């Protein structure tokens, strides 16, 4: 019996639920990866290039183990119909189901197509999250909208264990049916982003996990908010591609000695499931604010200010350092994501969807549910968000979380000679201080593009009047 294993955001052999089940049920397994031409039009995004770099790495790794990953390109139904023609004795397909967004629609339609038209049995599994979107419910059966009660229930529920795997001739003997697509992945990888090709694959992901557990987990609760310490796990990009499974991460953390760091980290992992669940509950949240009160915020959407934010030229050093970190590495520290998202939506009153779209293109770890969830949290438009009147002061955030300016100096070299205590507000440096610190505000580093205390009042007023519209 020949089965197809359809890989997507699960680029690994080990602890892969769909593959585990395919191996239990099949005599031969054909591995495929499908590329939808409609999804790969924006060639130059970091997000897309990084994902394809991981697929290519996975494909090459499999090849070394004697396994072919067949790359299919084109309309999804045409591709699988062609596969059926080439492989008539194929009767089952295994894959890890996408619970939300574009992927959910694709998977629902694909299941119908496989079963009705190709007479192939579909075997979809939940693999991407510890608990799928419908697994954590209130006693009444309703879903949660607020994180804390969700977390209290989530942490009590038993977590799924990793599944074993043995690679044998059933998967190794599989054929190469689309040789014409063998070089295709390379064309979707933009070489300008050299950082995307570094540190790929499951082996690296496991090293990253182990290093984090050995060096940072115990202190995670105290250290995680300080970007200069760089003490978070950096697992997000591997969880996004599936180069490591969430069950493997959970098991390793769970087996570590108890500490406040460990408890805090487990809670962070819960946010990932929470936002996945919220996206399923609010399928329009990618285009619409979840909170009805804030569906008609009178955004200013100044394009010049957006450009200054995007390029790290706002005159707020912590915002600029954060945006430059994103542009240079494809990753941004969580505290900084909160600061820049608050700054864009509240200080500049730019629509959160602009920021979400920018992150979408730039993040190595882009995950629609977490990104939209994070943006709606910061913009106060989500289910369980920061209240609209609690607005981050970027200068105070900078003083608190980068007190010595070490992170700022790494990404904003114009300010590298500025005194550590004065670096948070370079717009206030006197002429003589500027000379002493070798910086010219307004020339090689900008004045602040907005006055925070004015902007704060303006945002509260605009948010309040948005409520009146409803
Ligand atoms: P760690 O602190 O080591 O956390 C471990 C893991 O827990 C992360 O890898 C992630 O899977 C999960 N996690 C932690 N915090 C969150 C959170 N707030 N929401 C959801 N999951 C979380 N995360 C993404 O994975 N993809 C995104 O596209 C994304 N966009 C974001 C946008 C905004 C505006 C904000 C405020 C947050 C966003 N996050 C996103 C969440 C968080 O910033 C990243 O998961 C984290 O910075 C990744 O670094 P890390 O792996 O070192 O995190």
Automatic annotation (TrEMBL):
InterPro entries linked: Crypto/Photolyase_FAD-like_sf, Crypto/Photolyase_N_sf, Cryptochr/Photolyase_FAD-bd, Cryptochrome/DNA_photolyase_1, DNA_photolyase_1_CS_C, DNA_photolyase_N, Rossmann-like_a/b/a_fold
UniProt keyword Flavoprotein present: yes
EC number per UniProt: 4.1.99.3
BP-aspect Gene Ontology terms: photoreactive repair; response to light stimulus
Q: Which UniProt keywords apply?
A: Chromophore, FAD, Flavoprotein, Lyase
**Site: Electron transfer via tryptophanyl radical. Where?**
299, 352, 375
Names of the cofactor(s): (6R)-5,10-methylene-5,6,7,8-tetrahydrofolate; FAD
Query: By its UniProt entry, which Gene3D superfamilies does this protein fall under?
Result: 1.25.40.80, DNA Cyclobutane Dipyrimidine Photolyase, subunit A, domain 3, HUPs
Q: Name one GO molecular function term.
A: FAD binding
What is the UniProt remark on how the cofactor binds and its stoichiometry? Binds 1 FAD per subunit.
Catalytic reactions of this protein: cyclobutadipyrimidine (in DNA) = 2 pyrimidine residues (in DNA)
User: Taking every annotated instance into account, which residue ranges of this chain make up the domain Photolyase/cryptochrome alpha/beta?
Assistant: 1-130
Q: Which Pfam families match?
A: DNA_photolyase, FAD_binding_7
Summarize where FAD binds, as residue positions: 220, 232-236, 265, 268-275, 365-367
Q: Which PANTHER family match?
A: CRYPTOCHROME, CRYPTOCHROME CIRCADIAN CLOCK 5 ISOFORM X1
State the similarity comment: Belongs to the DNA photolyase family.
Q: Which protein, by its recorded name, is this?
A: Deoxyribodipyrimidine photo-lyase
Look up and give the organism this protein is from: Leuconostoc mesenteroides subsp. mesenteroides (strain ATCC 8293 / DSM 20343 / BCRC 11652 / CCM 1803 / JCM 6124 / NCDO 523 / NBRC 100496 / NCIMB 8023 / NCTC 12954 / NRRL B-1118 / 37Y)
